[in-house]
C-alpha cells in the first residue's frame, strides 16, 4: 500500500517528515510530493507551473523524511498534486494521502479554505483513504506530540473502508504528557485557517491567519476543545450530491429525469 505525503506549507516544512515517519512505521510505502513554495489557503485549487505542458518537479529532500523515501518538490498547489497522483503522475497510484502536519490549526467551517484539507478531500473524492493533520502553533515546538497523535489516527484511517471521507485532526502544541487526550469534535462555526495573500521579496509568501471567537464561545467544538488541550478529530465528507431532497424542476420531468412534453 502506497502513501502520498503532501502539505500546503511547502517542501521545507518539518511536518512532512512527521507524517512520512508515521506511514513508514505503519508498514506503508511512502512518497513525499509537496509544493515547492507556501500554498496556505489554496483550498482545492488546481494551480501549477508548467514547462512544455508538464508540471515542474524536482527531487528535493524534505526535513526529517526517512532514508529511502523519495521526496519531490512540485510547482503546484497541494490539491493538484493529489489530483495528478491519482492518474500516475509520480508513478504508482497512492492508496492513502496524508496531508500536513500543518503549521497552525485547521478548525471549524474554515477548513473549506485550507490547502491541507483541500488536498485530502480531493484525494478522498478520487477513492483514497485520507488524513489531514495540523499543529496549533505558528512555530510549533512539539512535533513529537503531533507524530504520536497522527500515528494513532492513521491506524483508524487504514482500518476503515474508504468512503469519500477525510479525517481532519488538530493537535495542541503541548508536550505529550500535557495532552488531555483525543476527542471527536464537531466543527466550530468559523474556526481558523491560514492563507497566503501575497508574495514578498525573494518570493516569500505573506501568510495571514483568519480566526473566529469559538475557542471561548463554543467550548465543545473542535476550536474550543483544542484550546483546552485536547487533540481533536472531525470526519469530513468529500463533495457529493444530496439526493434525499427533491428540488423543483423547470422545463423537465424531474421524476423521469428527461424533458417534459408540456
Automatic annotation (TrEMBL):
Q: Which SUPFAM superfamilies match?
A: SurE-like (SSF64167)
Q: Which EC number(s) does the record attach to this protein? A: 3.1.3.5
Stretches assigned to the Survival protein SurE-like phosphatase/nucleotidase domain: 4-187
Which stretches are transmembrane? none
Q: Which reaction does it catalyse?
A: a ribonucleoside 5'-phosphate + H2O = a ribonucleoside + phosphate
Q: What top-tier enzyme class does this entry carry?
A: hydrolase
Q: Which domain of life is it from?
A: Bacteria
Q: Which UniProt keywords apply?
A: Cytoplasm, Hydrolase, Metal-binding, Nucleotide-binding
| Protein family per UniProt | Belongs to the SurE nucleotidase family.
- What is the name attached to this protein's record? 5'-nucleotidase
User: Which species?
Assistant: Isoptericola peretonis
Amino acid at each position: 500500500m502506497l502513501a502520498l505525503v503532501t502539505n500546503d506549507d511547502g517542501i521545507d516544512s518539518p511536518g512532512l517528515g512527521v507524517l512520512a515517519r508515521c506511514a513508514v512505521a505503519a508498514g506503508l510505502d511512502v512518497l513525499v510530493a509537496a509544493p515547492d513554495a507556501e500554498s496556505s489557503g489554496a483550498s482545492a485549487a488546481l494551480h501549477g507551473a508548467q514547462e512544455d505542458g508538464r508540471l515542474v518537479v524536482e527531487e528535493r529532500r524534505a526535513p526529517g523524511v526517512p532514508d529511502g523515501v523519495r521526496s519531490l518538490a512540485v510547482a503546484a498547489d497541494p490539491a493538484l498534486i493529489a489530483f495528478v497522483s491519482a492518474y500516475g503522475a509520480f508513478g504508482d497510484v497512492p492508496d492513502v494521502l496524508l496531508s500536513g502536519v500543518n503549521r497552525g490549526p485547521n478548525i471549524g467551517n474554515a477548513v473549506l479554505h485550507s490547502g491541507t484539507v483541500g488536498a485530502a478531500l480531493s484525494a478522498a473524492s478520487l477513492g483514497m483513504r485520507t488524513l489531514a493533520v495540523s499543529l496549533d502553533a505558528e512555530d510549533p515546538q512539539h512535533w513529537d506530540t503531533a507524530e504520536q497523535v497522527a500515528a494513532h489516527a492513521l491506524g483508524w484511517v487504514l482500518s476503515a473502508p474508504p468512503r469519500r471521507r477525510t479525517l481532519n485532526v488538530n493537535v495542541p502544541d503541548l508536550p505529550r504528557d500535557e495532552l488531555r487526550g483525543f476527542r471527536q469534535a464537531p466543527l466550530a462555526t468559523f474556526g481558523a485557517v491560514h492563507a497566503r495573500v501575497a508574495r514578498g521579496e525573494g518570493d516569500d509568501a505573506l501568510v495571514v491567519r483568519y480566526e473566529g471567537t469559538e475557542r471561548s464561545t463554543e467550548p465543545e467544538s473542535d476550536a474550543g476543545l483544542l484550546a483546552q488541550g485536547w487533540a481533536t478529530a472531525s470526519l469530513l465528507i468529500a463533495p457529493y450530491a444530496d439526493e434525499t431532497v427533491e428540488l423543483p424542476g423547470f422545463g423537465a420531468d424531474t421524476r423521469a429525469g428527461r424533458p417534459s412534453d408540456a
